[in-house]
Write a structure and sequence with these properties.
Blueprint lengths: L3 H15 L4 H9 L5 H8 L6 E2 L20 E8 L2 E8 L10 H17 L3 E8 L8 H5 L17 E10 L1 H8 L2 E5 L3 E2 L4 H8 L5 H5 L1 H6 L6 E3 L2 H14 L38 H8 L6 E3 L7 E8 L2 E8 L10 H16 L4 E7 L6 H5 L2 H14 L4 E9 L1 H6 L8 E4 L10 H9 L7 H13 L3 H6 L5 E2 L5 H11 L21
Parallel strand pairs: 3-4, 4-5, 5-6, 5-7, 6-8, 11-12, 12-13, 13-14, 14-15
Antiparallel strand pairs: 1-2, 2-3, 9-10, 10-11
Length: 511
């Protein structure tokens, strides 16, 4: 057959690339229950849809060229649920997926195509950092910073990252730039490895304490979700993308409404305690309002006084921001401020309407918050909120006190404001108000205290707000789902075909 030798060479080189770091390393990963870089792509994407870019790339240095199939990063394009995505999967079996001249060109190309053509971008991270000796000395400087937009995010399309092993260097940077980050428990993400960090600080350090899932999901908030396996992480990526448009110039996809989705909201009063001093889990309220089984919470272990949840109403993506009295009584701290600000940026950048569910006693006051710059975080939130151009609907369920009333979409910071009859619009708790305003305590003069407390409460009711037309309506809590669906139909961004103005598109990706 003509060209047989050339075609044979193609087959041989393809086999070499697919062999990755060799059978021993691949067998070791299998024994550990961890997928390899190509298996991760195969699991995530629609069957037969992956088209690889750079299969025959090799390390540029002669001494490593023979042992760098695909140069340690498998890149290309595929479909997830029928939609095109760009994807980079780090191959740790090849020199620890270390960053080199060639494989960074592959990442750059994949990013550029995704940004220009409107594709979500998926990073499957596991890497040892920069490749040495490539980046040592003056000559090493000539291969870095060759892309001045390498760390620029203008949110043309959603970016997601999975942390699936040791993640240093590029895996860390791209995770910090992503809109959604999922982590397999046991993986580590940090600027530098524990061994390098131990030398730098001159003391031993536990990898989990440096960058384990508990730190990243509960303390720094850089990771949205921690899961138990590679497969669970890839499932989470697929689910997150189901709420997102392919790019910022189209609305999110619509999904069929599961049967029975309207039933749970009719029982919502069984979730809300009659006494305002009793706590409840607001995530159950969200689940009762949203389409059945459509809730996907982000950063559940971080800033827990507020829940940020992607969900669907009538098959359409919605972002819920809801105070959660289960944690700190719902009082907002610095972490909660950062969490909400980032969520507003996500929703506005990708045309997802925002719903506030309000039960907030105010901002958490104290020395720790002030030392962490709480006033600046409160105003960051407000600045972001003023720049949001997707529909914003506020439902005041119970408390909405002080400055937090404004941050949680009170007044003209929402397109529509509705109250439940249980709404309380005081500056602070009525009992505290009586003490502050009149200097009267319950134990000193119970009769006068109760009289003054009743006066304060009467002025802060849902009806008082509605009379001033600061709330557009008062609704039965059981009608909240129907109210939100109908109101969002009114406020759909028709003139721009469901697309906002994206004034937050270059907001920082972390704080």
């Amino acid at each position: 057959m003509p060209f047989e030798e050339l075609l044979k060479e193609l087959r041989e080189k393809t086999t070499e690339a697919l062999a990755m770091g060799g059978p021993e390393k691949l067998a070791q990963r299998k024994a550990e229950g961890v997928l390899n870089a190509r298996e991760r792509i195969e699991y995530l994407v629609d069957p037969g849809s992956f088209i690889e870019s750079g299969m025959f790339a090799r390390g540029v240095r002669p001494e490593v060229r023979h042992k760098t199939p695909a140069d340690g990063k498998v890149a290309g394009f595929a479909r997830v649920d029928g939609r095109e995505v760009g994807i980079v999967s780090n191959d740790f079996t090849v020199l620890g997926a270390s960053s080199s001249v060639v494989n960074m060109k592959k990442i750059k190309h994949t990013k550029q195509v995704a940004n220009r053509r409107g594709l979500p971008l998926v990073f499957l991270g596991e890497s040892s950092g920069a490749r040495m000796p490539d980046r040592m000395g003056a000559s090493g400087r000539s291969i870095v910073a060759q892309d001045p937009a390498e760390y620029q995010r203008l949110r043309e399309s959603p970016w997601v990252s999975a942390l699936l092993g040791p993640c240093y260097g590029s895996s860390t940077w791209y995770a910090a730039m992503s809109d959604f980050v999922v982590m397999r428990k046991g993986a580590i993400m940090a600027i530098a490895s524990p061994s390098v960090t131990s030398i730098a600080i001159n003391k031993p350090i536990d990898p989990e304490e440096l960058g384990g899932w508990k730190i990243l999901t509960g303390v720094s908030g850089l990771v949205d979700l921690a899961v138990d396996s590679d497969e669970h992480a890839l499932d989470a990526i697929r689910k997150f993308l189901s709420y997102m448009p392919g790019h910022h110039m189209e609305p999110p996809p619509e999904h069929p409404v599961p049967p029975g989705s309207a039933e749970a909201c009719k029982k919502i009063l069984s979730i809300l305690p009659e006494s305002r001093h009793q706590v409840y889990d607001v995530r159950k309220i969200i689940a009762a309002i949203a389409d059945r089984d459509s809730c996907f919470e982000l950063k559940a272990r971080f800033g827990k006084a507020v829940a940020t949840v992607l969900a669907r109403l009538d098959g359409k993506s919605v972002g819920f921001i809801a105070n959660n009295p289960m944690f700190k009584g719902g009082a907002l701290d610095v972490d909660a401020c950062n969490k909400v600000t980032g969520f507003l940026v996500l929703c506005d950048s990708f045309n997802v309407p925002v719903v506030f569910l309000v039960d907030v006693p105010g901002f958490l006051i104290g020395l720790e918050g002030e030392m962490r710059g709480a006033p600046g975080r409160v105003i960051n939130w407000m600045n972001a909120l003023t720049l949001v151009t997707v529909p914003r609907i506020t439902v005041i369920m119970r408390k909405s006190y002080g400055q937090a009333y404004i941050n949680m979409g009170g007044g003209k910071n929402a397109d529509e404001v509705a109250c439940w009859p249980t709404a309380d619009l005081g500056f602070m708790d009525p009992a505290v108000s009586v003490n502050v305003l009149y200097g009267v305590k319950a134990e000193d003069d119970p009769e006068r205290f109760e009289r003054l407390k009743a006066e304060v409460e009467r002025d802060t009711s849902a009806w008082a707000l509605a009379e001033l037309y600061e709330a557009q309506t008062v609704i039965d809590p059981r009608d909240t789902r129907d109210y939100l669906i109908r109101t969002l139909q009114v406020h759909r961004v028709r003139l721009r075909k469901g697309v906002g103005e994206h004034l937050l598109r270059n907001w920082p990706t972390s704080y």
